């Protein structure tokens, strides 16, 4: 309520926010999460909470008049459709040189993502965050993150025999034929549930073309794991459809004044409120946290923030693309939406690529192998407050993707040559091979040990912390949520011991 005082306020309910909430509530601290999206716990008129990929409705997309599918075109046709403006679950946030996809609602990115739960390669983790004790991360915090997230492994015998993973097996076969290694990828989607879907004894979700607009069953999203555990303490309050717009030192009594806008389901502002919090945890995601902090510094509300705030943003080297297979290498009209395998060429410095073999669940045979390549692209961008527009710009340029494309080509040109196949040029527009205008993996903007101290404290302002993907400097070599979760586990443990003890 307006004017209230709370001990701990968490901005955002994705991975960083969910870890902060669980560890604070378990430490006996009453914790308040403010989330700009809705709670995805109530079915719509069709009896379902989320809409599927093949028939998206207003629930699919955050405050937009059309869907904005990552694979936007097929054989010359645009596949986006008109929808009602609504606080839908997936946002494609547009900056001048890149579009950043993010989840919106209680659970953040966990509501929309592919669930791939990958622990980064240790030598690369040590390279990007050299001041962190890697022994501790790999012995304590990565295992803690994996177990609390509910990470599980696919039954390999089932994988080899089910039609639902034919697309993965074709991707693997063509990779192996060119000498590239593949690896199974763990996931938070319950693979036993998926087997029951295939057998017709459980509600189809991964096998029912659901993922980027939410899964109606099977997925262990954060609302089912970390956030449910935090709620079970009785110390968690979650306020939805409220967007934090400002954080500044409180005029009296210490702590911070947090200003927020309450929005309706069409995004209209219906109230502005402020509360005071002793501690504020920024967990609005790489983009959300960076935008807030850069704005607070520029507007003089938090003027002493480090000059490193807003720096070192990267797209995790994301390049999406497709290959056209021959008719005898059909990828199947049945495709699980949950990726289970990656091509791992990371160790090759000239073509450092970890490529997820991605599904393209179209409900019909497409012969397409779709990939999301994570490349070792060291390019970075920065967030800057634009006084003319009052908004925050991100200065990433399309040309910064070239290194990632070059590495991707070194792997997939070889596969195409061996197979006598070509890239699809129709998936991202007309004659556009590389889906490099979008990322699923925003990272950085408030990097650990540089914009913050070594545990995410904004040390110029005691009681302010960063706890999400903004801490990770630009690329981590694998899908990022396990890293974000484990870092938050590590940082929260130290913060609770030292600052709240
Ligand atoms: P987020 O999860 O983005 O959470 C931030 C939350 O803060 C959101 O709920 C947002 O609504 C809220 N928020 C933002 N601003 C405000 C504000 N001002 N006030 C109040 N609330 C606010 N990663 C993997 O590891 N594996 C995958 O398979 C994978 N697949 C993906 C597929 C898709 C389609 C997408 C979009 C992402 C995928 N990712 C995947 C990436 C992963 O989801 C993100 O890295 C992760 O969610 C980031 O966690 P976070 O805690 O930094 O922030």
Can you walk me through this structure?
By secondary structure, this protein is an alpha/beta fold. Helices cover 24% and strands 20% of the residues. The chain has ten helices and 20 strands. It has helices at 15-26, 122-128, 134-149, 156-161, 166-177, 191-199, 226-232, 285-298, 402-419, 481-499, and strands at 5-11, 31-34, 73-74, 77-78, 90-94, 99-103, 182-184, 236-239, 242-249, 256-263, 269-282, 318-324, 341-344, 353-358, 368-375, 383-386, 391-394, 422-423, 438-439, 464-466. Strands 1, 2, 8, 9, 10, 11 and 20 form a seven-stranded mixed beta sheet that branches. The longest helix has 19 residues, at 481-499. It is globular and about 70 Å long. The mean pLDDT is 97. Flavin-adenine dinucleotide binds at residues 11-16, 34-37, 101-105, 108-109, 112-116, 212, 243-244, 283-286, 288, 292, 440-441, 468-469, 479-481, 484.
Annotation keywords:
alpha/beta; 7-stranded mixed sheet; 10 helices; 20 strands; globular
- Outline the biggest β-sheet: 7 strands, mixed
The small-molecule ligands in this entry are: flavin-adenine dinucleotide
Strand share of the residues? 15-25%
How would the global form be characterised? globular
Residue-averaged pLDDT, rounded?
A: 97
Derived from helix and strand composition plus strand pairing, the structural class reads: alpha/beta
Note the topology:
Blueprint (H helix, E strand, L loop, with lengths): L4 E7 L3 H12 L4 E4 L38 E2 L2 E2 L11 E5 L4 E5 L18 H7 L5 H16 L6 H6 L4 H12 L4 E3 L6 H9 L26 H7 L3 E4 L2 E8 L6 E8 L5 E14 L2 H14 L19 E7 L16 E4 L8 E6 L9 E8 L7 E4 L4 E4 L7 H18 L2 E2 L14 E2 L24 E3 L14 H19 L2
Parallel strand pairs: 1-2, 1-11, 2-8, 6-19, 11-20
Antiparallel strand pairs: 3-4, 5-6, 7-13, 9-10, 10-11, 12-15, 12-18, 13-14, 14-15, 16-17
The structure holds flavin-adenine dinucleotide.
Flavin-adenine dinucleotide binds next to helix 1, strand 6, strand 9, helix 8 and helix 10.
